[in-house]
Specification:
about 130 residues; alpha+beta; Alpha-Beta Plaits; two-stranded antiparallel ribbon
Length: about 130
Amino acid sequence: MIKIYEIPSDKLSSVKNILEAPEKAIGELDVEIEKEAGKKGTKVEKAKEWQINEFKRQGYIIRDAKALGMDKKYNYLYIDADADFFERNEKTLLDAGAKILENTEHEKIKKKIEELESGASAGVGFIFGKG
């Protein structure tokens, strides 16, 4: 499932903060693990529970409207993921100022981004002799 979001330029930094948030330990699990402690041998620690940034793991594309040949002050976010991913994460994007595109506008932007990406891939292939 591909979704396209329109992001006003003044909201881009808020959305990027979400997309690029670092993964971090948020607590300890009730599991002990052994770790090397240099010359001291090993030590036992509690395993950490991590907050995962699903956007980093899933992958996404952000393109400025001007790069897509449009004279607008927007950026477009392209995400290809399953429905469960969007159920877990979409509200965060919407709260940060992103707007879901639908119907013809969705198809128009999707096509432009995919054309731009396939052109970039072809260019890289050409550089490395695979074109």
